[in-house]
Structure formats: C-alpha cells, structure tokens
Design goal:
Strands 2, 3, 5, 6, 7 and 16 form a six-stranded antiparallel beta sheet that branches. A four-stranded antiparallel beta sheet has the order 1-17-4-15, with no helix packed on it. 0% of the residues lie in helices and 46% in strands. The protein has no helices and 17 strands. The chain has 222 residues and is mostly beta strands. The relative contact order is 0.36. The protein is elongated. The chain has two domains: 124 residues, Jelly Rolls; 68 residues.
C-alpha cells in the first residue's frame, strides 16, 4: 500500500534545459498516458540574451493516437489550445547597496513577481524576490530580495526567471493516448538572441490520486 503524497507523480515527455534560438519549434519526447488521468504542462524561461526588444517561448501540448505521427494541438473544453506563452524578461537594471536587501531605481518592473529567482553581481545565490514596492514611478520604486546584497552597484543588471503551468485533465477519456510538449521561440531584434529554458509534462495519479496542481495554474479542463 502506498501512502506517500509523491507516489505516482513523474516528470515525463520533457524538453531538457537548452538554449532556444531562431523560430523553429522544439518537440518534447512523447509520453504514453495509459493508466494516468491528469497532468500539468510546466514551462521555464530565463532572461533573454542578445538584447532583443521582445522574446517569447510558446508552450503547447500536442496529442497523438500512436505517439509516432499525427500530432495535433490538444484543446480544452472551450476549444482553446492547452498551453501558455512566457515572455522572457529583458533583464532590468537596479541599484544595489551592500548590507541591504532593498534594490532601488529599477529600469522596469514588467513581468517581475514575488517568489521569482534573481541573480546578479552582489546578489547572494538562491535569492528570490519577496516584495515589490511599485510607486508608479521607477525612480522611487523598489524590489526587496530574500538576502542582503554583498556589494554596492549602480545600474546592475539582474537575471530573472519566468515560469507557468497549465492543467491537463481527462487523460484516457477524451484525450489521445500520447502527449508531448512543444516549445516555439520568437524574437524581435537583437544580436543572435537566445533564451535558456525547458518544458515538461508532470503526470500524476496512476489510478490512485490526483496530482496536486499549483494554485496559479491556468485551468485547462478537457
């Protein structure tokens, strides 16, 4: 008998961490969903390199009867393709002060959220954003991280991550047997722009219990 909450939860059909460039879609490994009844598609993107004016990764779930061919976009019960788009953050700059966790004078707050991992010169490893004070004016707005900065810098570039989830429900009912995640990059401008990222299908419940999905997951009922 199994009691562990993590029993029968697995990451399958993934696209390993890699640098996405150009505009060609990258297909994840097919996953046989037989005996599973729900899943989550997960995507992650780091800040874009190469200074593009816009950079995105589009995560799409596809399905197939055989796992070898005939792949089509998986739709939810509203006819919408299951997936999401991540805007790879164009790294903002901030002022850091040694001995304090407050980062001042951000060049942008677009796409920044509490819980996001952040790295940069003078930013301790493993730091996350714990508060955002948006005054409506960037020069007086601040970002608070989980550890004090170790050096003082002006216009220090931050590297930030972006992630999202979408639920996939109804496996084995009105869904084709094989699933995969597909990631399609897109860029505007820049010099050889690229995004480090990955995608995965997180499968749960081999006839026993549902997978616990994040509360911020985009609901994709089927």
């Amino acid at each position: 008998m199994k009691f562990n909450v993590y029993d029968n939860v697995a990451t399958m059909g993934s696209i390993p961490p890699q640098s996405f460039t150009g505009s060609t879609a990258v297909n994840g490994y097919p996953f046989d969903t037989l005996d599973y009844d729900n899943a989550v598609v997960y995507g992650y993107a780091a800040a874009a390199s190469g200074s593009p004016t816009a950079a995105t990764l589009v995560f799409t779930v596809q399905e197939s009867l055989t796992g070898n061919s005939g792949w089509t976009n998986a739709l939810d019960n509203t006819g919408t393709v299951i997936g999401f788009t991540l805007n790879a953050l164009l790294a903002p700059t901030v002022n850091t002060t040694s001995g304090t966790a407050v980062l001042s004078n951000p060049s942008s707050l677009t796409g920044i959220y509490v819980g996001q991992y952040v790295t940069g010169t003078g930013i301790p490893a493993g730091s996350t954003i714990i508060a955002i004070n948006n005054t409506g004016t960037l020069s007086t707005s601040t970002i608070t991280i989980s550890a004090n900065a170790t050096s003082s810098n002006t216009a220090e570039t931050l590297t930030l991550s972006a992630e999202n989830y979408a639920r996939i429900e109804g496996l084995g009912l009105n869904r084709h047997r094989f699933l995969r995640v597909v990631v399609t990059p897109a860029f505007t401008g820049g010099t050889s722009p690229a995004i480090l990222g990955f995608g995965a299908l997180i499968i749960g419940n081999a006839g026993e219990r549902p997978i616990v999905t994040p509360t911020n997951a985009a609901v994709s009922n089927t």
